[in-house]
Specification:
globular, single chain, D-Maltodextrin-Binding Protein, domain 2, 5-stranded mixed beta sheet, Arc Repressor Mutant, subunit A, 21% strand, alpha/beta
Length: 284
């Protein structure tokens, strides 16, 4: 049995389609199909029912996938140990962070980090979804909620402060006449969004977006009031901060204990603590 065949099958089992598995494995659709077919030949079992738009695991496929979970976890533990055992400062460190923090807080400070650490390359993932650290998608993660995974080392490194921002034209009107920009319904559970919806009350929400950059652009264009992190809104001379103070959000830095021993990881952690703490300090 080829280990790579099993890895491709596990990606298919996790995502439910050949195309999604191909994206995770960074190969084309045909490679995943070929690898899974090779595994089926080696095992003498049919693992997957191939439907037009998705792949469904057979009973044998479900059992093999369940047995292989431990193998994948062991592979990640070995990879993390190998990285922690090296003493070199020449390495690639993968960082996952929310899009606004990645673009507005962390990325502007990377030039200074690179000058001080020319052998370390930072790879930044600023996607809205959470990177799967247990599958090696990130070495370090910056998140706005403390994780429940007991295997992760967590550190509170900053605080996002929010405020309402409007153009001067809206600021000249009574707040009772304002209209608002907000998150779409998939993000109504966020504490700052719940505060905004309560503050809006019966006034109109005229635009909803799933990311802060779109909300910022709409507010700057004069569409209405938007609730933004102060590191975004205060930097925009075209917007005025107004209204009562909304709730804050903690910023957490996460990694695995064995990775933390690697010199390059420690340098990157120190960098994130300093970069986030400078723009989003825990204390005023």
């Amino acid at each position: 049995m080829d280990w790579q065949d099993l890895c491709h099958f596990m990606a298919l089992a996790s995502h439910g389609s050949f195309s999604a598995a191909a994206r995770e494995m960074r190969v084309d659709h045909a490679t995943v199909a070929r690898r899974v077919a090779a595994l089926e030949r080696d095992l003498g079992l049919r693992l997957v029912d191939r439907l037009p738009r998705r792949a469904v695991l057979t009973p044998d496929g479900l059992r093999v996938a369940a047995l292989a979970v431990g193998m994948g976890e062991a592979e990640q533990r070995i990879a993390r140990y190998a990285r922690s055992a090296t003493t070199t400062l020449t390495a690639t460190v993968r960082i996952s962070a929310p899009p606004a923090l990645a673009a507005c807080v962390i990325a502007p400070a990377v030039a200074g980090f690179r000058a001080a650490n020319p052998g370390i390359t930072l790879v930044m993932s600023g996607l809205s979804g959470l990177a799967a650290m247990d599958r090696g998608e990130a070495d370090l993660a910056v998140r706005l909620a403390r994780p429940e995974d007991p295997d992760l080392v967590t550190r509170r490194i900053g605080l996002i402060r929010f405020a309402l921002y409007v153009t001067p034209e809206w600021a000249a009107l009574p707040p009772a006449e304002w209209q608002f920009i907000a998150y779409d319904p998939t993000l109504h559970h966020l504490s700052q969004e719940a505060w905004l919806r309560a503050f809006v009350a019966a006034r109109p929400v005229v635009f909803e977006a799933s990311d802060l950059f779109a909300q910022h652009a709409a507010a700057r264009a004069g569409l209405g009031a938007a609730l933004l992190p102060r590191f975004m809104g205060d930097a925009d001379a075209g917007l005025i901060r107004t209204g009562p103070a909304p709730p804050t959000r903690d910023i957490w830095l996460l990694t695995y204990p064995d990775l933390r021993r690697a010199p390059a990881i420690r340098r990157a952690m120190d960098f994130l603590v300093e970069a986030v703490g400078r723009i989003c300090p825990l204390l005023p």
